[in-house]
Amino acid sequence: MKKYLIAALVFFGLCAPALASDTPQSLIQDTSVQVLDMLKKEDGKNTAKVRGQVEALVIPKFDFTRMTALAVGRGWRDATPEQKQALTREFQTMLVRTYSGTMTRFKNAQIDVKPNVLLNNEGREATVRSEVVVPSSKDNKPVAIDYVLYKTAAGWKVFNVSVEGASLVTVYRNQFGDEIRKGGIDGLIRALQDKNAKLTRGAA
User: Fold this and answer.
1) Which of 60, 157, 179, 190 has the fewest Cβ atoms nearer than 10 Å?
2) Gyration radius of the chain over CA positions
3) Which residue positions does the secretion signal occupy (predicted)?
4) 37: helix, coil or strand?
5) For residue 24, what pLDDT band results from cuts at 50, 70 and 90?
């Protein structure tokens, strides 16, 4: 999961207030610049105020229900509406707290958003490729990060992120599958609640 922490920089950059971003590529590009400016202004501080700003901004730009359904996989179909709501809430909380807690490490990162966007599903889905270099990393090699979005009436929304070809929702699907086999959907919900409780204590 370490490389996903690098992805956090742009991952949460998407939540910044958008400029005239009517394409997937411009959304990634414009908001990446804004979040870097924010991190530099805060000098890499990871305060409750900064985390709160990130949480308030990130939620509207992502379809957490779709992300959760993909991460849970086959078990999603068997979940009750109440369980689906609980899963989405806990997964969203875990993602936001995990990545907002690490994004300030990357204030000096360099982001190269590629101009060639891959469109699928008759133009309703888009994959935006980017490379992120963190100068403080050991090898200083760029990390390839792909953002998968789909077009809604409210604009483009992100529902998956891939780092070096490894899909975020697939990584979590493997973990969630183990929890479901051990304790069912309710067991997964409890596991997510426990994880979020630890994240809350760590951020305090």
Assistant:
1) 60
2) 17
3) 1-20
4) helix
5) confident
Please enumerate in sequence order all residues whose Cβ is within 8 A of that of 184, keeping only pairs 6 or more positions apart, or say none: none
What is the C-alpha to C-alpha distance for residues 171 and 161, in angstroms, rounded to an integer?
A: 11
Report the distance separating Cα 151 and Cα 14, nearest Å: 15
What tokens were used for 74? Answer: 């086959």
Give the largest CA-CA distance in the chain. Answer: 47
- The alpha-helical segments, DSSP class H, found in the chain are 2-13, 24-42, 48-58, 64-72, 75-78, 81-100, 168-203
Q: What percent of the chain has pLDDT over 70?
A: 68
Q: Can you tell me which residue has the tokens 């596991």?
A: 191
The Cα 81–Cα 191 span in angstroms is 19
**Please, which residues bridge with residue 201 across strands?**
none
For the record, the structure tokens of 176 come out as: 């969630």
Domains of the chain: 2-203 (3.10.450.710)
* Mean pLDDT to the nearest integer, 88-108: 76
The pLDDT value given to residue 14: 45
